[in-house]
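ESCALATION

Customer reports they have been waiting on this structure for their group meeting. Please prioritize. Original submission:
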Amino acid sequence: MSKSLPVHVIGAGLAGSEAAHQIASAGVPVVLHEMRPLKSTEAHKTDGFAELVCSNSFRSDDWENNAVGLLHEEMRRAGSLIMAAGDKHKLPAGGALAVDRDAFSAEVTARLAQNPLVTIERGEIDGLPPSDWQNAIIATGPLTSPALSSAIAQLTDETSLAFFDAIAPVIHRDTINTDIAWFQSRYDKAGPAGTGADYLNCPMSKPEYEAFIDALLAGEKTSFKEWEASTPYFDGCLPVEVMAERGRDTLRYGPMKPVGLDDPRTGRWPYAVVQLRQDNALGTLWNMVGFQTKLKHAEQVRIFRTIPGLENAEFARLGGLHRNTYLNSPKLLDTSLRLKAMPRLRFAGQITGVEGYIESAAIGLLAGRFAAAEALGTASQSPPITTALGALLAHITGGHIVAEDDAEGRTSVRSFQPMNINYGLLPDLAAAPTHDKNGARLKGPERGREKKRAMSRRALADLASWLGTAAEAVKRSA
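Update from on-call: job pushed to the front of the queue and completed.
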């Protein structure tokens, strides 16, 4: 199998690193191209692979009750490098999987550098891949270089879509006032590497919250360049000040919701809470959960120090804003992520229109498997749509396009927008559960929870069948 022509992967972020790992795991040589450190981006700080530029959280790790957790588990069972590195370097984060970002990146980089089937080449690919690269994956992420973006746009006769992503601040732990802030996970829930007391919580009374909202609304924001003015935000990563503009209680029912958190000074839930999550293994850095922002740096320091417990906060990193680009994938890509206009090219990761670290890595996993199958001369099958992997793939390669007729009978197509994995992307059960394992009739919220569990169990059963079929195909090609 090692005599196969190499697959070229452009970009060593989460998706590209996962794709390269999957290709090499199938016995196919791969050349992994990364332009850093010779050329960097506005968001990256290191030359390491799979650098986490925003949060350090992979979100929920509960595969029975959360679609993100289900995607985690599916990727683990498919031999994911990203999940293996995440599990090895996990940090306490309640029910979420959070990682030490530096150790995580170092693990991914080392694993790929040590793989004899992986060749690493540093340098920018400043246009379409050379014509003799007959099997290539473009996994250049949301910050694809202008030269490559322009070449792709010209090839597809499309103008790249774009949106803004914002970054949350990181604070030095020893500057947080624990006479006010206290350790607790929501409802004391313990998750991977957690104890049930994994977040630092800064409480706010109603007057403090109202004053904070006023400060956010009045704070000086980063101004947009002329070409950025019409770029929308992705709803899953809104700056806090934009959420505040949508209504004074938006934050209190979003990232600042106090439910399940008992202030030890009062024994009650506060009016609102700012949560901080551990950002490195030493526990010296903590990030402000959900506090991505486009406030100017001086304004961030001034306003965030009005939060009880953060009055003397020192910031290791302040929040920021960067512009992301993504393809109109339902129109441009086929079901194996190949570009219809040039099938020798595949795309993977956030540039395909998925949102989130794990979703990006998941598409890299699939692109790598599809490319390896092509290199081996075997047929590639998409994972069942009943799985999180299959549902995410189906969404970005066609599931989003919906024809609609307006009041005058004219047909239009809804625009394609970035998407996180969620149970709504999976097909419904043939028959939803009505009774629990003891025979008692399910009612209210428990019925919904049991439905999610049933969908997750179905997903893992169908995934096992798909993985078995793929493994048999690889054996036959040997």
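Sent to customer with the following note: The domain at 7-160+327-400+462-477 is CATH 3.50.50.60 (FAD/NAD(P)-binding domain).
Escalation resolved.
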